[in-house]
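Students often ask what a 'structure token' actually looks like in practice. Rather than answer in the abstract, let us consider Exo-alpha-sialidase, a protein of 370 residues. Its sequence is given first.
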Amino acid sequence: MELLERCGLPRSMPPFLVLGVLAATTSIVLAVVHLAAHRSQPDPQIAIEPAAAGRSGSSVVNSERAQVLSITMITRNRWAAGWSDCTSGPNCKFAAVIDRDGSRATAPEWPVPYATLQAGKEAIAVAPPLEGTLTGAATMMFRLTYDGPVLTKLRYRLPTATFQKNEILSDRIVPGSIVVVNPEESTVRMLRTRGTRSPVCDESGRCWMLTGIGRTDVVWTDDGGRSWGSRSLDTHNQLGRLAVSPDGQTLLSTSVTVGATGQTVSKMEISTDRGANWKTVENPPKSLSAPPLAFDDGTALILGGRPGDRPRIFRVRDGAAKLDRGYPGDLADLSGDAQLMYGFEVPKRRTTEVVLSTDQGATWTKFAPR
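Now compare that with the structural description of the same chain:
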């Protein structure tokens, strides 16, 4: 009874009612303790969602005939690689692997190749829609955070003629079109713009593209597509690629002619004053194996050579292309910048390794991105 009085309960209260009050009080105390303990535990890893995802992509990446299709590297320890498996059934299967500072995760299996992209200081993988248009099936985004892997269905937005600084421009999600990906808002949309290929933004915020029907023009914008500048590069050929240095001062454009023997370089031009003046590059390689790279020092690198031969690395300097340091292998792709160049090989059997260089090709390191 003394205990009841300490709790503020009169001695005259019926015993069963007293027991009920004590039981309720005990439950509340236990619930508070449990909640406090739960809040002190770390949050679990972010679950992969939504249900539109396919099976695990590990079987694709680890299959006997798996091959690397694409690679995007931000640093040596932050990259995304696209993989394919075309021998396990009537249809090819695709997956992607992301590494973030030593932690790796594999994206789900997908029926079309993943596009690997740079989103700020991280690498992501985007699974394009099956129909080649954003109004069809789902477009998925796979990324790896410090809390774990995240797979998100990107919401489709109506096309716009402008874009924001934090958005990604890509011509690898819908063929022949520029697509805008907003990783933070988990949205994707078409860009109604003058350009159709090779979108690249330099460190100043200016974005460049190539466009033209039956010709090649370079266009650029400093205000997210609200206004554009343009210059004609080639009045005869439409295909080609554009490389822009990080500071935006060096630009290299290529025009390609399609013939019976494949694609050959018809014209190559370089500018070292932000596109104000251009000079035709002398002695360019006859064919290109990958888009060129432009550097802040006014030079550029090209991976190419004669059709049918093993690609070699050429350096464009003072308006002429000359054979640069050789590569002891079959390099079939070249991306990056002066601090980190990378690509993958195409040996006789299959492509399973990526090579990288931090000294502009003087030395190379191999690793398997899975």
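One point worth highlighting: Residues 4 and 224 are 73 Å apart (CA to CA). Ask yourself how you might have guessed this from the sequence alone, and why that guess would often be unreliable.
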